[in-house]
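Entry for the shared binder. Reason: the reviewer on the internal report wants the predicted structure included alongside the sequence.
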Amino acid sequence: AFYGLDDGAPPPAATPAPVPAGAPSLLLSMPRAGAGLDTRLIAYQRTPPRTEFYARSEWLDTPPRLLAPLLLRALDTSGAFSAVLMAPAATPARWRLDTELLRLQQDFGATAPSQLRLTLRAALVDTTSRRVLATREFDLREPAPSDDAAGGVAAAQVAAQRLGREVAGFCAEVVRRDGVGRD
């Protein structure tokens, strides 16, 4: 079975938040993969530190590549940026968001039912000065509806949507603090 991080539901029909005058533009770098995450195999863990993989279930692509469009959509509808582009882009952007996926695995050891754990590190960079404006690590846990690959994937889809909202909120907070009028 092959799975994606998008749950297949149409994107919310909510209108994007209004963009403040002078809001910076943002370039979203392709998320980097932490150790063991540059694979289509779906990871789980029964006992730390050993990571195992499901034999008959895979992601449609590597998790960082599946996460990128979800992050792009969340950032684009946040209203914090005049434009959000996926790297590489021919148009320059004032700010860049670099991310690294550190963990995406179903954990069977800590609780019952199992839970999905999704960890992402984000750094917002001013491309003109090359200064890091802010960093944050997001560590999300989502209970799996079943203790199998399909349950882990369902929990990953919920966690990925929540992650997109939290990353967009983080970036919007930095824009309010440091960015309006600087683009």
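Summary line for the report: The mean pLDDT is 91.
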